């Protein structure tokens, strides 16, 4: 990165880091997490190599920070829900820490996949993948034809692919 | 990963592969279809690559047991929606839907005026000089107007020390909970909300208790009461140990460790799971809330228990 943009970046940092961290703290209610995410916001900016034009800094940073907060909540919500579901298991059946990390990562992906699907597609997908229903059963439940379910499932696969591999 | 593995695959090829996967998901392929898929894959390395990607994708879907996925996903949207509302700074239209509707709104908590995170405690001075202490993981709305001084306890626990009588204020000082309304008369009172039950410890002054659907009653200093909207459930003596959190402490006296851990869990993030075979062990002592990890490790000195940290946020207490 050329020298001028480095100066621009450190200018952005000193102008905006303070309020950004306060803004995050008001939303997260936690000093440490707010500091982490404020840091991540600037790292994202650095990596993107796209510096906002003068006067746009605040809007630009807020946009990045909002994304990071939503990601953070998503992760927290999924981890919490997963830990609670594990807490109901008897001790010998609880998976190893490595397995748990793997499962949480995949749950995050599945969550993102579901987010990428329209409502009916999502219902069909969940019934097929997590309830083990056949397309005929799904068709009956949704009140549509089997070929409509097939179309939903194709769209679902498309959404999953998009999440994992981009377009 | 090599560059070729990262390279995008033509949309048409992905669509063809998706079609095979879609068929496979409905009870598997028959012999004829399997052979056709085989031929399709062999026709072009790109076909093979597309199919491999979809296999990988399917692997992601199968990492967790179905039951776990269902449990976790059933909570989708519940919290994110209210958090998003708060994040986006959206105002909510709470019209004349009435009290019952309001108390059930899941985002009520997120929109509270004052809230504390797990592990955080806060003291507020109210405009009339009363002091309001908020325990960990609690939320209140403060509504002062020309007719009343109203504090709504949305969740968690508060300790209200009303201003000295020298500060005369003709407006009633009210605390609203899910179970009813309290009117404090020169009082120092602890109020905690557990599900639909409100628990009170009155240390000073007097308190009028008005359950939403039952006859009001008056409480005098030194008494404790648990009540729901339909009336009193239990009464007893006020206990200062229950407000030791205000001093940053947790006090146990011959308390079953299971109950103690449930209380401690309110002061930290994550889950503390206590095995049933040790839950009844009695515990006594004064514990600092500033370092809950240390409290947990202290337990192993005084009781035959072992602490397992699965993650920083997930702790299990078992027999040695």
Describe this structure in words.
The complex is a heterodimer of chains A (167) and B (320). Chain A is mostly helical. Helices cover 80% and strands 0% of the residues of chain A. Chain A is built from seven helices and no strands. Chain A has helices at residues 3-28, 31-48, 57-87, 97-115, 119-130, 135-142, 146-165. Chain A is extended and about 60 Å long. Chain B is an alpha+beta fold and 320 residues long. Chain B folds into three domains: 3-63; 112-242, Jelly Rolls (Sandwich); 248-319, Phage tail protein beta-alpha-beta fold. The model of chain B is unreliable at 78-82 and 87-111 (pLDDT under 50). Chain B has nine helices and 16 strands. In chain B, α2 packs across α4 and α3 (31-43) packs across α4. Chain B has helices at 3-6, 11-25, 31-43, 45-62, 66-73, 78-87, 98-104, 257-265, 292-302; strands spanning 114-115, 122-125, 131-134, 139-144, 149-161, 173-176, 180-194, 197-211, 217-220, 223-228, 231-237, 249-256, 271-274, 282-288, 305-311, 314-319. In chain B, β8 and β9 (217-220) form a beta hairpin. The chains are: A mainly alpha (167), B alpha+beta (320). At the A-B interface, α3, α4, α5 and α7 of A face α2, α4, α5, α6 and β16 of B.
Topology:
The complex is a heterodimer of chains A (167) and B (320).
Chain A: H1 3-28, H2 31-48, H3 57-87, H4 97-115, H5 119-130, H6 135-142, H7 146-165
Chain B: H1 3-6, H2 11-25, H3 31-43, H4 45-62, H5 66-73, H6 78-87, H7 98-104, E1 114-115, E2 122-125, E3 131-134, E4 139-144, E5 149-161, E6 173-176, E7 180-194, E8 197-211, E9 217-220, E10 223-228, E11 231-237, E12 249-256, H8 257-265, E13 271-274, E14 282-288, H9 292-302, E15 305-311, E16 314-319
Parallel strand pairs in B: 5-6, 13-16
Antiparallel strand pairs in B: 1-4, 2-3, 3-5, 4-5, 5-7, 6-7, 7-8, 8-9, 8-10, 10-11, 12-14, 15-16
Helix pairs in contact in B: 2-4, 3-4
């Amino acid at each position: 990165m050329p020298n001028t943009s480095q100066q621009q970046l450190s200018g952005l940092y000193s102008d905006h880091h303070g309020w950004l961290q306060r803004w995050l703290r008001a939303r997260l209610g936690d000093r440490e997490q707010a500091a982490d995410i404020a840091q991540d916001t600037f790292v994202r900016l650095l990596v993107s190599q796209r510096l906002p034009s003068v006067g746009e800094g605040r809007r630009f940073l807020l946009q990045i920070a909002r994304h990071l907060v939503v990601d953070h909540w998503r992760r927290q919500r999924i981890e919490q829900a997963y830990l609670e579901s594990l807490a109901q298991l008897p001790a010998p059946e609880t998976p190893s820490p490595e397995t748990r990390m793997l499962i949480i990562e995949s749950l995050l992906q599945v969550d993102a996949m579901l987010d990428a699907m329209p409502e009916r597609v999502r219902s069909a997908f969940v019934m097929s993948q997590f309830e083990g229903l056949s397309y005929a059963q799904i068709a009956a439940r949704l009140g549509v034809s089997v070929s409509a379910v097939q179309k939903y499932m194709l769209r679902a696969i498309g959404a999953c692919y998009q999440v994992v591999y981009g377009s | 990963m090599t560059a070729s593995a990262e390279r995008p695959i033509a949309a048409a090829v992905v669509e063809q592969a998706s079609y095979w996967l879609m068929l496979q998901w409905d009870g598997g392929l028959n012999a004829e279809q399997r052979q056709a898929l085989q031929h399709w894959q062999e026709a072009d390395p790109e076909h093979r690559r597309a199919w491999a990607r979809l296999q990988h994708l399917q692997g992601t879907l199968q990492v967790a047991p179905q039951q776990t996925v269902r449990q976790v996903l059933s909570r989708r949207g519940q919290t994110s929606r209210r958090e998003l509302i708060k994040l986006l700074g959206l105002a909510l239209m709470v019209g004349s839907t009435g009290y019952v509707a309001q108390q059930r709104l899941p985002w009520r908590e997120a929109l509270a005026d004052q809230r504390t995170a797990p592990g955080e405690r806060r003291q507020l001075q109210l405009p009339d000089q009363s002091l309001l202490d908020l325990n960990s993981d609690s939320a209140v709305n403060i509504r002062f107007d020309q007719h009343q001084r109203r504090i709504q306890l949305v969740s968690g626990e508060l300790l209200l020390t009303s201003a000295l009588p020298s500060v005369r204020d003709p407006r009633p000082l009210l605390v609203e909970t899910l179970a009813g309304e309290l009117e404090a008369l020169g009082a120092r009172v602890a109020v905690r909300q557990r599900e639909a039950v409100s628990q009170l410890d009155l240390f000073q002054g007097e308190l009028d208790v008005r359950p939403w659907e039952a006859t009001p009653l008056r409480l005098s200093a030194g008494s404790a009461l648990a009540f729901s909207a339909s009336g009193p459930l239990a009464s007893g003596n006020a206990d200062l140990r229950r407000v030791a959190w205000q001093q940053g402490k947790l006090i146990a006296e011959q308390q079953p460790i299971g109950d103690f851990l449930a209380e401690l869990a309110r002061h930290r993030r994550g889950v503390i799971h206590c095995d049933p075979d040790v839950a009844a062990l009695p515990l006594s002592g004064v514990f600092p809330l500033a370092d809950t990890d240390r409290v947990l490790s202290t337990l192993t000195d005084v009781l035959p228990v072992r602490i397992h940290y699965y993650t920083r946020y997930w702790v299990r207490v078992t027999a040695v």
